[in-house]
Write a structure and sequence with these properties.
Layout lengths: L1 H5 L20 E3 L3 E4 L4 H10 L3 H7 L10 H8 L9 H6 L15 E7 L5 E8 L4 E6 L8 H15 L5 E7 L3 H9 L3 E3 L4 E3 L5 E10 L9
Antiparallel strand pairs: 1-2, 2-3, 3-4, 4-5, 6-9, 7-9, 8-9
The structure holds coenzyme A.
């Protein structure tokens, strides 16, 4: 049903796409991606969808109620974007999607990303500023095109140039070659860290750690 509705002629929703940091919110761009602190609930739903598929969950093991479990819903959300890529009828039928998302100081810093060419959602990264650790996902249709490298480049730039951290770390499953390679391509180098990680679903994975160094500074955010 959602897919057949998506085939209807689109009228753009006009949801905002920030392009600069403002108090409490961030924005940054890489060659093909635009990252910003989510503005609406739709931004958050799309980000969750980017890492909720079985291939991503293999490495993340979130509890089922923490992810959007219906594959058609995920695909429909990831077909959208904050501006011209979301049809107005969708917002009319799901008004909650346009409700504002308010970042909270207790949450990790969290940036959704859209492709600059299509305006569609492509993934997200998050940074725990207390631990200085990042993680993230590229949505299934966008994997294997070098965007994971851009994601981690953006994560490092964000950590150093927006969150003011001279060092940012990332841990991943030893067997997750795509993630390891994307981190390495983004300039992360091997670092010491815990050799095992227990996922929320109880599985344990062997892990490797990386870090990225840079000059710490703050962005426009006070
Ligand atoms: C991990 C992830 C972010 C990588 O992003 P991506 O866009 O798929 O990766 P890229 O296209 O930037 O590829 C980066 C490198 O990994 C390699 N690579 C990609 N997929 C691979 C795979 N399945 N196996 C081995 N290497 C792979 C690419 O060839 C590239 O190396 P190269 O530059 O030497 O050619 C993305 O695949 C993803 O979100 N996966 C699902 C969830 C996940 O693993 N999240 C990260 C947890 S740390």
């Amino acid at each position: 049903m959602i897919r057949s509705l998506l085939r209807r002629r689109r009228a753009a929703s006009g949801l905002p796409v920030p392009d600069a940091c403002t108090p409490g919110r961030h924005a940054l761009a890489t060659r093909r991606l635009l990252f910003y602190t989510p503005v609406t609930k739709l931004d958050v739903w799309a980000a969750i969808s980017a890492g909720a598929d079985p291939d991503a969950q293999r490495w993340q093991g979130n509890q089922a109620d923490q992810v959007i479990s219906d594959a058609d819903t995920r695909r429909a959300l990831l077909h959208m974007g904050p501006n011209g890529a979301t049809p107005r009828w969708f917002i009319r039928s799901n008004p909650e999607a346009a409700e504002p998302f308010e970042p909270s100081p207790e949450m990790p810093e969290f940036m959704v990303c859209v492709r600059r060419d299509t305006g569609r959602y492509a993934g997200y990264f998050e940074l725990d500023p207390d631990k200085g650790e990042i993680g993230g996902n590229i949505a299934p249709d966008h994997r294997g095109q070098g965007l994971g490298t851009e994601l981690f480049l953006a994560g490092a730039e964000f950590a150093h140039g927006h969150a003011g951290l001279p060092t940012v770390r990332a841990g991943t499953a030893t067997e997750n070659l795509a993630c390891r390679r994307a981190l390495e391509r983004a300039g992360f180098v091997p670092a010491p860290g815990p050799a095992r990680h227990t996922l929320p679903d109880g599985r344990q994975l062997d892990t490797v750690w990386y870090q990225h160094e840079g000059t710490a500074s703050a962005c426009a955010r006070p």
